Each structure stands twice: as C-alpha cells, then as structure tokens.
Amino acid sequence: MAVETYKWPVQLGGGAIEYDQTIRTAQFGDGYEQVAENGINSTAIQVPMKYTGKDDEVNEIRAFLLAHTIKAFIITPPGEEKGLYRVVANSVRKNQISGNIAELVFTIKRAYGAFA
C-alpha cells in the first residue's frame, strides 16, 4: 500500500499551529505530584492550512483532501517536519472568490503509526 504525497503549494490558514499534549498525573496527599507522558507520541499537532488558486486545481485538491480523512498522506507543513498527516473531519471549506478562483481552507492533524 503506497502512501500518497500532497504535491501542491502549502500555506498556513490564518490560525496558529496547535500542540495538544496528553500527560498522566498522580497527586499525593503530601503535595507530591508525579507527571509522565501518555505514550511515546503524546503531543498531537494540528495545522490550519489554505490554498488559493484556479477552480480546477482547487477541486483536485479538495478531492485529495476528502479522500484522506481516514488515510494518512505525506506533507511538510510550514514550520513543521515532514511526516504523516490526516485531514481533520469536517474541516474542508471552499470559498468561491470569483468565476474561476477559489480558496480552500482545511486542517490537518499529525498521524502516528505504520501508514497511520
């Protein structure tokens, strides 16, 4: 099974990159607290993205994104490392700017595992 690669230009989508860390804590009666990461990949990364271009290309990208809400793909988001990501469900939005120019806004989330 081949992992597809996102091949179009990338741009941050106006929001901040989010880092969601999951940790486990145990608090004791004397005030002592133990803290540990929750697994080896305890930081989830979400990146808001956008693409503006000709309607035909935007539709091609939209089809790619909608096919990758479950299946991971390879991308290098701005400011992040190349890796496996999935599209966050229900995050794909298309704005028609003019007759043949459109903007696509979407969010991707880091995927972990073999072919995530």
How confident is the prediction overall: mean pLDDT? 89
Helical segment count? 1
- The count of DSSP E runs of length 2 or more, i.e. the number of strands, is 8
Low-confidence stretches: none
Shape, please? elongated
What is the string of SSEs from the N terminus onward? EEEEHEEEE
* Helicity level: 10-25%
Total number of distinct structural domains: 1
Report the sheet with the most strands, covering strand number, pairing sense and barrel closure: 6 strands, antiparallel
Instruction: Give the percentage of residues in beta strands.
Output: 35-45%
Task: Outline the structure in words.
By secondary structure, this protein is mainly beta. It has one domain (18-110). Helices cover 10% and strands 41% of the residues. The protein has one helix and eight strands, in the order E-E-E-E-H-E-E-E-E. The chain has one helix spanning 55-66, and strands spanning 18-21, 23-27, 33-37, 43-54, 73-75, 83-87, 93-96, 101-110. Strands 1, 4, 5, 6, 7 and 8 form a six-stranded antiparallel sheet that branches. A two-stranded antiparallel sheet has the order 2-3. Strand 2 (23-27) and strand 3 (33-37) form a beta hairpin. The longest helix is centred in the middle third of the chain and has 12 residues, at 55-66.
